Amino acid sequence: MRRILLFVVVSLAFTSLKAQQDPQFTQWFQDKQSFNPAAVGLTDAHCLSVFYRNQWNGFDNQPNTAMVNYSGRIANFGGVGLTFYNDQLGQETNNIFRIMGGYHINAGGGTLSLGLGLGYYGKQLGNSWLPPDGVASIPSDAAINSDKRSDGSFDMNLGVYYYQPEKYYFGISSTHLTQSDLDQLSIKVARHYYLMGGYNFDINSDFVLRTNLLAKSDFNKSAIDVNANILWRGMLYGGLSYRPGDAVAPMVGLEYCTSSGDKSTQKNQCFRIGYSYDATTSEIKNYSSGSHEIFVGYCFKIVNIPSTQKHANPRIW
Questions:
Q1: Count of domains forming the chain
Q2: What is the CATH number of the domain that holds 164?
Q3: Cβ partners under 8 Å of residue 288, min gap 6
């Protein structure tokens, strides 16, 4: 039964030639750059992050997504970023690589960033047709291609992002602007639109309430993600995300920052790790125990310390 339901879910995803293709992350507020290139390099740290999502646990060949990000600042006028992710859903595999640049403008005490992302979008469809539970085999069908098929294309993203450090942010962006045709698969890549924002409320000296909202659409389907989490002493946090009609997702995380130095440099470092669990609220909950997601991030900055010259006094032995 689970095989049949997963097949139906995948089939519905392709009922439109412009099906939604971007992956889902519950902890998207720890990412941002994968769907808004203007979010790169907004701090003076170099940051690496890794995401892994296991969706709809309990299904055969359930969706699994892995993503790696890098973000860093260039001088004082902009930032650069890299993103790679691999997304697997049944017999469908998506690979995307992007390089991003953001141009930063000081505005109103914050930073206004204009971003551009260029990259490659690749998709592969498998050919392993499994019979439903209790069925010995599936009769051959000449309409079903017996070979694995794949195709890829140039991909482009644009975004605008405003950031007030430690207080609030706002962004609007679009991915897959080229809407490329994957002729070998008879699929057209859908253009996606994103609107996001967040605000931090200082409750007292120990607690900060952080709120985040993401709305996304490809004009075929739309979704909204609302998140709130409380950070304690800049180190531990816990919260909840809600996607209407899809899931409620509690989460916990750790943010630990430290400084170290030697004779020539001083490195300020931050380590972050977070876990979220999606409790499905749609009909899929009858067949799946939920979705698991983990995020790990590491940021560091190097500050050059001027060397001190010392001169020996020849009169001192």
A1: 1
A2: 2.40.160.40
A3: 56, 57, 58, 59, 62, 280
